[in-house]
# Entry
Amino acid sequence: MTAPSVAPAGRPRLRLGGPVGVVYLALVGVYLVGWLAVAARGGDFVTVGNTVTILQNSVALGLVAVGQTYVILAGSLDLSVAYLVSLTSLVTAQTMQTAGVVPGVLAALAVAAVVGLGNGLVVTRLGVNAFIATLGMALILRGYLEHNYTGPAGAVPTSFQHLGYDRVGPVPVSVFLLAATVAVTWFVLRRTRLGHHIYAVGGDEEVARLSGVPTTRTRVTAHVLCALCAGLAGVFLASRLGAGAPWAGTEAQYDLVSIAAVVLGGTLLAGGRGGVAGTVGGVLILATLDNVFDQLAVDPFFKNVVRGVVIVVAVALYARRGVDARRRRMRGGS
Amino acid sequence: MNHSRTPVLTVRGMSKSFVGIRVLTEVDLDLARGEVHAVVGENGAGKSTLMKVVAGVHQPDSGRLEIDGVPHRFPDPASARDAGIGIIHQELTLLPDRSVAENVFLGREPVGRGVRRLLVDRAAMVDRTRALLAEVGAVSFDPDTLVRRLSVAQQQVVEIVKALAGDARILVMDEPTAPLAEHEVGLLYDLVRRLTARGIAILYISHRMREIFDLADRVTVLKDGRVTGTLATRDTNRGELVRLMVGRELRDYYPPLAAPGDLGEVRLAVRGAGNDRLRDITVEVRAGEVVGVAGLQGSGRTSFARALFGADPFTTGEMRLDGRPVRPTSPRAAIRAGIALVTEDRKGQGLVLRQSVRDNALLVLRAAFAGRRRAGVGPVAVTELLTRLDVRAGASDREVRFLSGGNQQKVVLAKWLAARPRLLVLDEPTRGVDVGAKAAIHEFVRDLARQGLAVVMVSSELPELIGMSDRVLVFRDGTISGELPARPSEERIMRLSTGAEVAA
Amino acid sequence: MTGTGRVSDAAHRRRIPAPLAGLRAVAPVLVLLVALLVALAVVDPGFFDPERLLAFLRRSAPLVILAAGQYLVIVSGGFDLSVGAVVTTGVVVAAELFNLAPGLPWLVVVAVLLLGGLLVGVVNGIVSTVFAVPSFIATLGMMLVLQGAVFFWTQGAPRGYLPEDYRMLGRSAVPGAEWLPWAVVVLAVVGLAAVLFMRSDTGRTLVATGDNDVAAGLAGVRVARLRTLAFALSGVAAAVAAILVGGFTGVSAQAGSGYEFQAITAVVLGGVALGGGRGSVVAAMAGAFSLQALFTLLTLLGVSGAWESAVQGVIVITAVAVGGISWSRRSRRTHQPVREPV
Amino acid sequence: ASDLPDAGAGPSAGDGTEADATDSEFFDQAEYDRQLALRDAVPDGPADRPWEQALDPEYVPTEEYRQDGPYHLCFSNAGLFNPWRSVGWRTMRAEVDLHPEIAEFTVLDAQGQDDKQISDIQSLTGQDCDLLIVSPNTTATLTPAVAAACERLPVIVFDRGVDTDCPVTFISPIGGYAYGAAGAEFLAETVEPGGQVLALRISPGVDVLEHRWAAAERVFEDSDLEVVGVQFTEDDPATVKNTVSDYIQRFGGLDGVWMDAGATAVAAVEAFEDAGVPVPPITGEDQQDFLQAWDERGLTAVAPGYPTFQWRTPVLAALRVLGGQEVPERWVLPQPVITQDTLDDYLQPDMPPQHYALCGCEDLPDFPAAWGG
Ligand SMILES: Nc1ncnc2c1ncn2[C@@H]1O[C@H](COP(=O)(O)OP(=O)(O)OP(=O)(O)O)[C@@H](O)[C@H]1O
Ligand SMILES: Nc1ncnc2c1ncn2[C@@H]1O[C@H](COP(=O)(O)OP(=O)(O)OP(=O)(O)O)[C@@H](O)[C@H]1O
Ligand SMILES: [Mg+2]
Ligand SMILES: [Mg+2]
# Structure
């Protein structure tokens, strides 16, 4: 059966990345505006030092958001990451205090994996929707933390703090950690079967199931990977803080902000479309904004106002496509 | 077609029930190599369920399943696929945001060797997809294309290729022609024949009788989950099949057309109207008249229906209802002007599936005619309607999604008739509806016409179109390529819609 | 074909008294609620003294009202994460108003708050419908904006006091019927209003819209408008809650923190499906009562403040899992060629 | 390159901060005694300016830091996440405005995030600050950053300390033990023996608050009062009010209420009023609404303070350091307790409810307007 031929849809990468272009345009925009604004006040924004600060401040949120990307693409989401970051920071620090660096990292990641597994199983096997499941998990972790910790605990050896404090040239080591995580994630999502299955499950779970995709395993894996990223964030914070802190993850609202960052990166909140490249853009946008406000000595409270506005406006812009999609749906057509 | 007598697939004593409801009872069926074996039955008879059991989607409660005489169990779709069973589901199973290749190989993406076995081998995926597409003679689109960019017919091709990609020796087609128009059906026929020639055995489900007789070697009839007969198509006829399906005789003819006297004033008049998908549409529809709309997939029929209904309004030209100019710019406006549209996508656009039959039937009244405006029409009237339409719903507070396709369509009709429209637009009103319900709907539509309603009916099923229409408009490339009087020949319709003939 | 009976006789069968019909929908959460109440009675026999009970009702009022509002948004297919921030803002703004214009009649302030809540809701609605921003993000943004704005305005410390007459609704009892707190009256009124609304045409079309907005739109529903209405009402509910909370305790910079998740949890406990289209408002409010009962129970049991949240987490997950209340994402895709139902 | 201090001062946070919140592993007898002793120490400094006073100070020379103005001061603030900090912050800004020789005052706000405050400190040390003031968000976790900063420029730490003595001076009031003890002792005196006392705490885990409770627990143990309950309130007035009324209903009244912070004291008072029972002796804080309630309703109360005037001191200290004048190495500020006798001295008319009376800001320009009065 023939029909008017249809042009191929360009390189898959670009396509899957959703409106990555837009995201980075927005980033550049924010950066330029920041530059002008700061320059207007006689400061200089585009210094190595400042750029480094922006990167440095993106690491923790970046790690969490990259993880969040997995679950959101898979049509889920994870509200427990904030507490998980705190928990893993503590596990890291305490294990290192007694058992040394490697066991510390491993222990943290193990704990993270278990929590992720828990989320995944509750979502898939018990059929509790991800919002409630992970919210419940968050409450449980919170209870555990508040009951067992009364402040920073554990201590990491100085050798390990280099992860948090050292620089290669001007670039903080931790930025390489983030870069590596992003690279791996990009690779997993684009090039592996798991990646394909994550997009499928997020796009339409039933279709994926009928096509022989192991939906349960895929979802669970996504949750585990998300938790592992949060775990890495915890490890990083432990090295930076020199100890674990029960509020390391919650003070920064990593749960909601990471979701915002992902969506800000052009990934569909409903899942099935988007990618990690956009997420990085989203994180950088938030970090840059923050930095600009610091430079401009803007009232910290006012930051939140602008943050909120930026997130909504940006998503509204991407949503244009969403609107078209909806119109198409209205037409029930291809 | 040639086929040896050794069955590739044997189903014995297959039973299946969902949450206590028996859906399949002791079903036996066998499928010979290179055979096209049709499975027919009313909505809800269990056809799709049987196929899903065969394809490993559902686990049977009891019963045997053999391939080449070897017993098999399929815990999941993948294992059935690996055993050489490909299926085209009744529901669409494509991801619009993924490329054709990614869809075709979803769940079995090819991987490299050694270290590279971690990676999906994109090149291989694309090449093999291209090959498969060529095999079925679809060269019009590239494996990298996003599925959402394909036409309905092209998406159907992808479905078929997807089903074949696992080197299927058994191909299950569950109502493959439902979304296709007559002209694409022809292409599907060719494909089926080519496949059987290669020895592939096909299980073919359809509500369209003629397809059964055109394609199938044998036909198995299901009624309420039981096999009521398996016959060779050459020694049976429509009447017999229908009796086996419905359990009673069913008149083999359409209700009589409108006599000249029955036609009233011009109800709908469209002149030189158009929008981004339609141009230069000029139509008149009289009260009491049923005007059929024919055309190929993508010819603009749904666009036309939606334009009349204000969903994608006309942007040019003029439109009059009972002589008064109207140009509805929203469904709401159209509804208030007395226009109703039964959409082609019943589940997606017609029903709120998790609401009760009542709430569905009352939806239009509640939405568009608040308070006083809807004096008279109300719950009572709606209940009567449902009864008149003979909706077998168990109870009117039952959720609509549990109804069979036919009953769902009747609920949609009830929803619109409750609003007392003056112009009723039907887009594929009997798509996927079984013979029994189909006949009922035809009767009912004609009744309404007799009572003075003006009806526009889009259909891809030519017999229906010819049997029901007092006049037929043929669409091509977004405009009307010709208008034919009652009882036109299929062949003329086809020629007008393909452009082989240009209206005088 | 499926089913046998005709609608006609089905119609008779349906003539079961409405309350019973309602019960069916509410059942699971009622079980939970009753269980918790029994537990409360066991742990603390005095709990069912009329005045203790009323105290409990009054205490639950804000959450129940928020849940009712949240229900409207959820059942129409959205989320409202901004209610907590609205409550905080409401409390602080009221204080600010009385600070700027000390003599202000309290009813004026109440009106201002209600209008404010309405406005916030309308903005949420428009952003998430007209601009097609997922309501999760739209209301999250609103939350950030409100939190930031209110603290920016007050520089972190609310100024001004809430006068007694304004605090009456949240704090004192109906004159003449000293046993009856105003808050309970407000709760009753809001609850009744919610039930009536959901029985109205608008209420039912709202549910239909949450089920399938495309079909609803093609049936003449003004989808955007209706969804916006839901957000608006949720905003108003939040404002009412703010009035009660502020009245009950006076000024506080974090009056509403955590309410958004509590409200959503309550609604889900009530068996309302996230994603919309199913669940009753009564059940949602019952969910809120259950949650409040759970809190009270935990305090009575002297569960360490720390473990409280953990227990809450476990209970919520189990309740939802057991209730089989699993969120099915928008059932089938609808922007695809139609195929027949399975 | 590394931003770690060469010393690589690994924080010694670990030991024992992990444990069940309810037992007072926070209790440190020596520190406890030191603080109680300090309460009676004679302050060194102008009598009417407590923020310039120091309790038995050991002065250290600062010649090495002397330089000529104008100065560029930098301040890394933990955040403004509660009224106490906002009031303090206003006071600090006002103090800065008093000194023309401070040409520039650069502030970074960490919004309560340790991670961000570390970056803030790093980027501030990168800029051309003459001196860095730090109000740490957390003791242990900020130590390395502060230590690193010390190597680049003079650092002054206040409010919460760090685990290194590299800062030129560390400024803070006497401390949590003294605060907690003050309230508890007051109850021990005023509540008749055997009385039932309810202790309301914000939340476990915040060391300052843990110290307050640890001390109070001590006092109660030695007294003949019965602590009928210890409840966490998350500093939420509604929770406080509900908890208190629950206890009133269950115990038919209470004989005393101890609170580890005063923000919600009024809610507690109202709980008694709404229940129609007399308000027992209660401890609050120097917050305006409580002082007013106390005054108007004639409560039996006491208000220990964690004075916000300490936000003035770092600025003054900074100027001294840059001026080469000696400063106390450990600058302990007095920690007044407001009692019935001193209530009138502290109670300012028409200040906002969340104003802190111990702000020592009355003499600053545009008081009270800038403080919301
Ligand atoms: N997953 C399921 N859960 C519960 N009941 C189901 C399920 N799938 C199908 N059914 C029921 O089983 C019966 C048979 O359904 P099935 O789809 O096999 O009928 P069908 O012959 O394919 O109908 P149609 O011609 O409309 O496609 C119907 O009553 C349907 O409601
Ligand atoms: N205005 C429109 N915009 C986008 N898609 C539309 C529009 N109208 C119809 N469609 C859908 O797009 C496809 C082709 O559009 P068109 O309406 O031009 O052809 P059609 O003949 O109506 O298709 P069908 O044969 O399904 O009725 C159809 O599936 C139809 O449902
Ligand atoms: Mg079927
Ligand atoms: Mg069509």
In short: The radius of gyration of chain D is 21 Å. Residues B 301-302, 344, 427 surround magnesium ion (ligand 4) (CB under 6 Å).
